[in-house]
Every structure is written in structure tokens, then in C-alpha cells.
């Protein structure tokens, strides 16, 4: 099996109550590819950077099994740059700078060697670019997942609806689910969103965990209660990376494996927030990941006997 | 085993986006006693009402096994009355009216037949009244749990600290835990609060579930994702009632049984919000409760195999 990720590879500059970074490596595609690399060793990336992007980081990705034939390096141009500042509660942030640069006219070229990829993860990008990728794959992947955000609902609703009809899994946060469905109740939101195309919906609730809707089934995964969230940047993409990385290794995409994939994604996201940017994700061991997953098992497992002792 | 509940028995008038009630039956003591009555048949209640309180409701409580010798009925006085209006998100509300009436000078008299009660649940009341109850019990109960609220932290901090030192379990919501501990992280908050006295802490997060802290162990129980929350009034007290009702029937208060008690409390709270006030809680069957508990099992259970397929 193989996984193709399409998403931004970027520079971020982040300010949190705990500190401030200069330009560091960020981007949805980066977080997804790194997180999934712990599970899926056969990976491809479609993205674009400028000539200012460090060769070291590309080497790091290659070492992790990420094929970079689909990563365009635009000479004379600059890499996408985002800068943001988190508020004290770490749940909200202000965007300070967004420089689209190479992302402004991104044409997602699919190398011929990428044809036949079984799993496709579309990171948050314009729904038009996301759909272009699907259309350029000669054979439909076994599973297509996508992320999106409020911005595209505001400015590209019709395009978003067209793309949504083509995907199997939508991974968004609670605020986005509410805007997309115009429903406050996430149960009602899930019903509406599933009628837009995706048969599987994952709603991320940050520190409150994540919900999986699949047919009539619902699964709830907690977030790990943490003493500190150091930097939430990329946690959602890391979740998606762990989710798709794990899912692309299993025999069958069914409810039981989707539940496991959500737990794996949650575990990966819990590492991401421990340090700035991708730092913590670069040094994980298999044992650390298994131990973290076990913490999730311990956090929610209970053995129910009859509630009422007659 | 037996359970003594101390808490308000009151009138509420509630407005939600779904409708509006006249004066209906409310009060922490009422919700706790009704919810726990499905599990614990040997119950006592210490509270106070005015002569305006309906005899029918008292009969309903007696039928449920609640001994009312400790319920004072003050002739010529009026029952505590609260009126509130929920906002559209159902997570915040405005208090429209608070008439303390009989609660203003409440002296919690303990009937001699209540001495020796093994489990004590102190609903949200002034910490001075809560402590008075503990002091008036000749033999310390096997387990003392209490609820409190921001109001007492604002006006009776020292009294609250004295009472907290005497209890085993504190059941509060996330906002209250943050105010009590002056910590935003609930993990840090839990550590601080446990140093104030309670060795067991339950933090209710409303639609986001509940956390149990016990020694070094943490357990997370989800809330049931619901299409509609009709009226959240009393959900927290119903949770506490289910929790203590169940716990007072088990052999030993250990982590495994505390986890089950949290799930039972969550299940009972999920019924409470389906109708106004105590309405839904009055008609439950054992089978409905067991089925609802099973929904919680299904919502979170997964069978993790190795995350990483080597």
C-alpha cells in the first residue's frame, strides 16, 4: 500500500505564552507526511516550495520514506509563510502574516510514478486544487480523505461542494463542521455533512477529543489531558497524518480499524503539541508511540457490569 | 448501605430555545435523590421547603425510597425559586430570578435515624452548611462527596477551604475547577485541588464529558453526542446522583468502580437533558438505563492492536 499526501510545505513563525520562534518548518503537508511516516513507509508528496526552502528538511523527509518527485521547487520564488500568535487559553490565535508566495498559483503536478497510489490525503488547500489532484489520478484511490477550513466555505462554497462529493473521508474541526452544516449539534451536523458526499466524517474537538461518524456508528476518542500545550500548530494535520498513515497499513477500512486510526491520530497529535512545530515529531521512537497509544487505552477503558444491582 | 443527600429542593422556571416552563420542580437535592433512587433504595434527604411545595412531589420521592424525615417544611414560608434563560448554544445561561426564601436561614437538622449513613452527598450549598452536616454526623460516613460553585469561591473562600479538607470526592465543572485552582490546565488544576483535601476529583465538562482523577490515575468519560439538548438544568446534579447512587451499592470504592460510577452518572445526565426539569428522570426503566450505559460502552470501546505494523 502507498499514501499520497497533497498539502503545503511551509515556513511558520509562532508565538505562544511559552515562547516565540523565528521561521521554522511548517505546513499541512509536512506535518501529515512526518506523522504518517511512522506507519506508512511508502509515501509520496505533492507540494511546492521556493528556492529558500532548506535542503536538510527535504533530506529528512526522504530518509523517512517520503518520495519527493511531486515536490516542485520554484527557483526565484519564496516558500509559503504563515505567522501566528496564540492567546493564553491556546484555543484561539491571531494570524499575524500570511504570504502565499509559491502557493498562489500552485498547479499540483502528479508524477507518473505516483499513479496507482491507494490512499490519498488532501491537506487543507483550495478545493479546486484538491479536485484537480483527484481528476489527475487515472485510477481512483481506494480511499480519499480531505481537510478543509472556514476560509474555503466563505469564498469557494460551490467548488468545495463539488470536491466533497468525490471524497470518502472528511476531517475537520467542530467549528468548521458547524459552519459547513449550519447546525450547532454535531450529531445533526454529521448527518448533513455525510449527505454532501463523505461517508466517513471525523470531527476534531482539540482538547476535547475527536468524534468519528461512520454509517450509523459513532466513536469518541478523547484527547490526552496534558499539563501544558506548548504549541498547537500542526496538531490537526498531525492527527490526519497518524490517522491516514495507520489506515493505509490495515487490511480493510472498516469501523474497527477507523477507531484504531483515530486513536493513533490522537496519540500523534498529543506529541505534536509538546514542542514547537515539527520538533517533537522528528524524534519519536516506535516504543514511545506504542506507550502513548496505551495511555489512550488506559484513559477510556472500563469494564462495565450491570449498572443496576437488582 | 445507605445514602444521605443534602441539597436544595426547589422551584425552577426555565426558558430554552425549545420552550418555556412555569414553576416546575427543581433543586440539586431533588435531581440527586431521583437519579440515585434507580440504584440506591435506602436513601435519606436533608433539605427545606416552604408550605407552597406540592405534597405530590414528596409522595413521589417517598415511593422512590427517599426517607423525608430530614426535609423541613416551613409553614408560612416559600420554597427556594430560581429562574433562568439559556442562550442558543445551551452552554451559557442568564439567571433571571433567585429567591432564596427558606434557604436563606437553612439549618440542616439531621434526624437521629439518619446517623450511621455510609455515603454522604453534599449538593451545592454554602460550605458552612455543608460542613455543619459533616460535623453533625456522629460517625464519619465511609465516603463524603460534595459539589460547589463559583459563587462560594467568590464570597466564602476560607469556609470552602475548611469544608474541602473534610471530603473525599469533589464534583465540579471545568470552569469551577479553573477558578478553584487558578490553573487553566485541568491536569494542573486537579493536582492543586487534590492538595486541598479531596483525594478523588471529578471534573464535569458538559457536552465534552467528564474527567476522573484518583491518585495518579486519570479516566475520561465522554458525553453522549445528542441531536438536541432540550434543557441542561439539573444535568450536573443528575450526574452526581447517578454517580453516588451507583457507588453506594458497590463492595469497594476503588478506581474500577469509580470509573463505572462516572459512566452511570453520565448516562443519567444524558436522560436529564432530554426534557424539562425532572420530567425524563421520573419515568426511566432499568432497561432504558442499561441500554444507555451500553451506548457509552459502544461509544468509546476499541480493541487496540499494535499501532505500528513492523
Question: Can I get a quick summary?
Answer:
With 310 residues, chain A is α/β, with parallel strands linked by helices. Chain A is built from 10 helices and 15 strands.
Describe the protein in words.
- The structure is a homodimer of 310-residue chains.
- Chain A is α/β, with parallel strands linked by helices.
- In chain A, 34% of the residues lie in helices and 23% in strands.
- The first copy, chain A, has helices at 28-37, 55-63, 127-136, 150-155, 157-164, 174-181, 186-194, 235-247, 255-272, 286-300, and strands at residues 3-6, 10-16, 19-20, 24-26, 43-50, 66-67, 71-74, 81-86, 93-99, 119-122, 143-147, 169-173, 200-204, 210-214, 217-221.
- In chain A, the strands form two sheets. In chain A, strands 1, 5, 6, 7, 10, 11, 12, 13, 14 and 15 form a ten-stranded mixed beta sheet that branches. In chain A, strands 2, 3, 4, 8 and 9 form a five-stranded mixed beta sheet that branches.
- In chain A, strand 14 (210-214) and strand 15 (217-221) form a beta hairpin.
- In chain A, helix 6 (174-181) crosses helix 7 (186-194) and helix 9 (255-272) packs across helix 10.
- The radius of gyration of chain A is 19 Å and the shape is globular.
- In chain A, 49% of the residues are buried.
- The interface between A and B is large, with 50 and 50 residues.
